[in-house]
Design a protein that fits this description.
The structure holds 2 protein chains of 2 kinds. By secondary structure, chain A is of the alpha/beta class. Chain A has 12 helices and 14 strands. Among the domains of chain A are: 158 residues, Rossmann fold; 62 residues, 2-Layer Sandwich (Alpha-Beta Plaits), CATH 3.30.70. In chain A, a hairpin with a 2-residue loop joins strand 4 and strand 5. Chain B starts with a helix and ends with a helix. A 5-stranded mixed β-sheet of chain B has the order 2-1-3-4-5, with helices on both faces. Chain B has 2 domains: 119 residues, 3-Layer(aba) Sandwich (abc type-2 transporter like fold), CATH 3.40.1710; 197 residues, no CATH class. Chain B is built from 14 helices and 5 strands. The chains are: A alpha/beta, B alpha/beta.
């Protein structure tokens, strides 16, 4: 490559980047599902892709996996061009969906062995690798159980084990914890962080905002465009939102108080959590507003979550449209 | 809880809405009775006509040609060519080119003129027992009518100046099992090959495992071959079971070459698998795949010559039948099993089967790849 070409390619070829895209766009007829997305995901990062349904998340992921050609723009994933080398990409990624695409009529071990074969895990190392994965996920005692008879949490473990059986440097998780109980979700995220610490890059789409906060970095997708990108705390800080919890246990008409709060010009939203009303403002002091609207009700400052930032951003976009 | 008409109505309404959205099922519900009606009512005519007939004319006289034309005038026989000797008749039967042969001896015309009793021979392929009786009866009627004519003219001395002797080749006992058993191989293969393939892939789609495979490095050609190889083996096992059981239980002797049959069966199985694959790209669920396979089975049973003689069908039904792989496989397997047909006898049927199979494989590969991407 000439020096000029290297400059033109810019960061796309940065070896520290596992994913880098420039102006990635996909049209379906008239519809622009993904529009001009520039993305940079570094090695070992857990990268969350957030967005409402139909925002273009899966179209973006499908392009990154090499199963859908971009209409325009460039992308490099695990060092290969999404347009020219999709097959090389497919060999080097893991992919797991909320459906836990397992063969329900195969045992845990048979599923693992199948995917090991599909992903070309060398025959000699295959046995050992399966044993290793079984041990790491605690699936050893259930190795002969049919996948269809496992509970949601266990199926999830098998699905994760299957999609990482070939030690992919990059793992895509599409809403991986939908329909899984909280205990299993924690175990699952612990496992994801272990993988990331060992160098695996993880791209995860999710609707659960508590999960979004477990990511190193986030991208907000809306209407096919990348609205914001950064660490969860950066995104929260950039939103400029403030929040307070208002205890309405002693209030005579809590519903009326909440309506009055919601009607306030500076209030973005009010939500009930039992007796608490959580007031989020677009920057104004929520405690002052609370004192004004509901004098006497105790108010304490509250933390702004990624969810607040997300909702504010979506509302802002919807208002603009 | 009380019995509630209202609740029933709600459920009925929901079913109707779901049904309306399931275009495939609706289409089949409308098409099935229509097809049944047309196929049974129209195409299926068990009265046989236009039996392909060869003539071995050793006399080469105006009288011998007259006899052949009298036979053809009944509408039952269609003259498809001349042969010189018995081996050529056998060859025509083996390849399925002819089902009937008329043998006129030398001295036929001279004998008639001199008033000597003359005998002509009708040879019928007995493999399809259904057609044999009418084939011999019709010819016998023509011959005895002519004989009566000659007698009336009074020139002849003999009591019966012209007689017909008939003989049946292959399956002289006229047992139906002999015809049905090899045919059944074709029907069973069609059913299982099409249905298993269609359902096998629809199942992967339904469970989401197909999506998982799409993001993997597996190529669609690898997926397809990997999936059909076991079915191919199953197909051969089924074929063997039917033929062996047919020989043991129904005493259907295998006349021809096993090797040739097994080699040519691969072509038919491939065509059926391709069709199943094609269905799988249309069906979203296993249930739809199953419905489609059954839907497809019907014309196979009716138009291929499995249940009703192919020669008896009107032209448009025959044209439809020609497009069905089973039609050609039936001719091949019956030819080999019952009449000991060899490779040269079967070339035209093999060419048909290869052409249809090629189109199916191409169409399903293109569609399958498009659906996967």
């Amino acid at each position: 490559m000439t020096a000029a070409a290297a400059v033109a390619a810019g960061e796309l070829d940065d070896p520290a980047l596992v994913i880098s895209t420039r102006g990635l766009t996909r049209r379906f007829g008239e519809l622009v599902a993904v529009q001009g997305v520039d993305l940079r995901v570094r090695r070992g990062e857990i990268f969350g892709v957030l967005g409402p349904n139909g925002a273009g998340k899966s179209t973006l992921i499908r392009m990154l996996c090499g199963i859908l050609d971009p209409s325009s723009g460039d992308g490099r994933v695990v060092g290969f061009d999404v347009r020219r080398d999709p097959e090389r990409i497919k060999e080097r990624i893991g992919y797991m969906t909320q459906r836990f695409s397992l063969y329900e009529d195969l045992s845990v071990e048979e599923n693992l062995s199948f995917y090991a074969g599909i992903y070309g895990v060398a025959r000699r190392g295959r046995r050992a690798r399966i044993e290793e994965v079984l041990a790491a996920t605690g699936l050893g005692p259930r190795r002969r159980q049919l996948a269809g008879t496992l509970s949601g949490g266990w199926k999830q473990r098998v699905a994760l084990a299957s999609s990482t059986i070939h030690r992919p440097p990059l793992l895509f998780l599409d809403e991986p914890t939908a329909g899984v109980d909280p205990v299993s979700r924690r175990a699952f995220w612990a496992q994801i962080h272990r993988l990331a610490a060992a160098g695996t890059t993880v791209v995860v789409t999710t609707h659960y905002m508590d999960e979004a906060e477990r990511c190193h970095r986030l991208a907000f997708i809306f209407g096919g465009r990348l609205l914001d990108e950064g660490r969860p705390d950066e995104i929260v800080a950039r939103s400029g939102l403030r929040a307070a919890d208002l205890d309405l246990a002693g209030a005579t008409a809590p519903a009326a108080v909440m309506d009055a709060l919601a009607a306030h010009a500076d209030v973005m939203g009010v939500e009930a959590f039992g007796h608490l009303a959580r007031v989020v403002t677009t920057g104004a002091d929520p405690i002052a507003i609370a004192a004004q609207v509901a004098p006497g009700a105790p108010a304490t400052p509250a933390r702004i979550s990624v969810e607040d930032a997300f909702v504010a951003m979506v509302r802002g976009e919807e208002a603009r449209a | 809880m009380r019995f509630s008409i209202g609740r029933i109505a709600v459920i009925t309404r929901k079913e109707l809405i779901q049904l309306r959205r399931d275009r495939m099922t609706i289409g089949m519900m409308v098409m099935l009775p229509l097809m049944q009606l047309l196929l049974f009512g129209y195409a299926i005519d068990t009265d046989v006509r236009h039996m392909p007939t060869v003539v071995q004319d050793a006399d080469r006289s105006a009288a011998s040609r007259d006899l052949a034309h009298r036979l053809e005038a009944t509408g039952f026989y269609t003259l498809v060519g001349e042969v010189r000797d018995y081996p050529e008749i056998a060859r025509a039967f083996r390849s399925g080119d002819a089902r009937v042969a008329l043998v006129v001896p030398a001295g036929f015309a001279a004998g008639l003129t001199a008033g000597r009793p003359v005998e002509v021979q009708l040879i019928v392929d007995g493999a399809d027992a259904q057609t044999v009786a009418s084939a011999t009866q019709t010819a016998a009627a023509v011959v005895s009518a002519w004989s009566a004519e000659l007698r009336a003219r009074g020139g002849a001395g003999a009591a019966e100046p012209l007689t017909l002797s008939s003989s049946i080749w292959y399956n002289p006992d006229l047992r139906t099992a002999v015809y049905i058993v090899p045919g059944l191989v074709g029907v069973i293969l069609t059913m299982t090959m099409v249905m298993f393939t269609a359902m096998g892939i629809a199942r992967e789609r339904e469970r989401g495992t197909l999506e998982q495979l799409i993001v993997s490095p597996v190529r669609s050609i690898e997926l397809v071959i990997g999936k059909i190889v076991p079915y191919l083996a199953i197909g051969y096992v089924q074929m063997t079971i039917i033929l062996v059981a047919g020989a043991v239980v129904f005493d259907v002797a295998f006349v021809g070459s096993w090797g040739l049959l097994y080699a040519l069966a691969a072509l038919f199985i491939a065509a059926s698998l391709a069709l199943g694959l094609f269905f799988s790209t249309l069906a979203r669920t296993q249930q739809q795949a199953m419905q489609m396979s059954f839907f497809f089975l019907l014309p196979n049973l009716l138009l291929s010559g499995f249940m009703f003689p192919f020669e008896g069908m009107p032209a448009f039904a025959q044209a439809l039948g020609q497009a069905i792989p089973l039609t050609h496989f039936l001719r091949i397997i019956r030819g080999i099993v019952l009449r000991g047909a060899t490779w040269p006898d079967l070339v035209p049927e093999v060419a048909w089967l290869a052409a249809i199979g090629g189109v199916l494989v191409l169409a399903s590969a293109l569609r399958f790849r498009k659906k996967l991407g």
